[in-house]
Backbone:
C-alpha cells in the first residue's frame, strides 16, 4: 500500500523566514502534485511535477521532485501571512485496471506569524 | 464559472437517512474522482470513473455507498442508512484524459454532518 508522509505536520514560522516542507512516498512514481487548502475550502492546485529533477516555482514557493529518493520538497522563501494554509502533496498512481488515483499526505498546516 | 461544481455545499441529515450528492465536472473532462476528507486529514480516494465506467472503488466505499456517472457527464454519490462516521467533506475532482501527469481539479466539496 502506498504511503505518503509529510513533515512537519504543523509549522509556525515568522514572516520573512524560509522553510522547507518534505514529502516522502513509498512507491515508484514520477508524478507528484502539491495542493493548497484554506480552512473550509477545497483544494487548489499549486504544482505538477512530472519527472525526476523537476523544479517549479511560483512566487515565494518552489517545489522539486527526486524520484530516486522518493522525495519532494516545497520550499517557502520569505514567508508572508497570505501563505498561511494547509499544504498537501499527492502521488499519482495507476492500477492494472487503468484506474488513476491520487494518494495524499496528511498535510502540513502552515501558520505565518508577524 | 467553468470549474467543478458540487451540490449541495452542506448537508445535515439524521442517522439512518439516505443522502445523494451531485458533481458536475469540467466540461470534456473524461476522468472523475470522489474523495472523502475528515478533519485534519488528507483526502482519501473513494472511486474513479473514466467516462461512464467506474473503474475502481476503494475499500472505504462500503455497500452503503454507490456512485454513478450516467453518460459520462455528471456524477452522483449516494450514501444509504447514514452513520455518524460518514460525517466528512466529500470532494469531487475531474481531469482530462491525457495520460498520467494531468492535474485534477477539485470542486468546493459537500460537507456532510450526520446527527
Residues:
Amino acid at each position: 500500500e502506498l504511503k505518503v508522509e509529510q513533515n512537519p505536520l504543523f509549522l509556525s514560522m515568522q514572516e520573512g523566514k524560509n522553510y522547507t516542507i518534505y514529502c516522502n512516498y513509498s512507491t515508484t512514481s514520477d508524478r507528484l502534485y502539491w495542493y493548497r487548502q484554506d480552512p473550509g475550502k477545497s483544494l487548489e492546485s499549486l504544482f505538477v511535477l512530472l519527472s525526476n529533477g523537476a523544479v517549479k516555482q511560483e512566487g515565494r514557493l518552489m517545489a522539486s521532485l527526486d524520484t530516486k529518493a522518493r522525495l519532494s520538497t516545497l520550499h517557502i522563501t520569505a514567508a508572508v501571512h497570505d501563505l498561511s494554509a494547509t499544504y498537501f502533496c499527492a502521488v499519482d498512481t495507476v492500477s492494472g485496471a487503468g484506474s488513476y488515483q491520487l494518494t495524499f499526505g496528511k498535510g502540513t498546516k502552515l501558520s505565518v506569524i508577524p | 464559472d467553468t470549474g467543478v461544481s458540487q451540490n449541495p455545499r452542506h448537508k445535515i441529515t439524521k442517522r439512518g437517512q439516505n443522502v445523494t450528492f451531485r458533481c458536475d465536472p469540467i466540461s470534456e473532462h473524461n476522468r472523475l474522482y470522489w474523495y472523502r476528507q475528515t478533519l485534519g486529514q488528507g483526502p482519501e480516494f473513494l472511486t474513479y470513473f473514466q467516462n461512464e465506467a467506474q473503474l475502481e472503488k476503494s475499500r472505504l466505499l462500503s455497500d452503503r455507498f454507490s456512485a454513478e456517472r450516467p453518460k459520462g457527464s455528471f456524477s452522483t454519490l449516494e450514501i444509504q442508512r447514514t452513520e455518524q462516521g460518514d460525517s466528512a467533506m466529500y470532494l469531487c475532482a475531474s481531469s482530462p484524459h491525457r495520460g498520467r501527469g494531468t492535474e485534477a481539479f477539485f470542486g468546493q466539496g459537500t460537507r456532510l454532518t450526520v446527527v
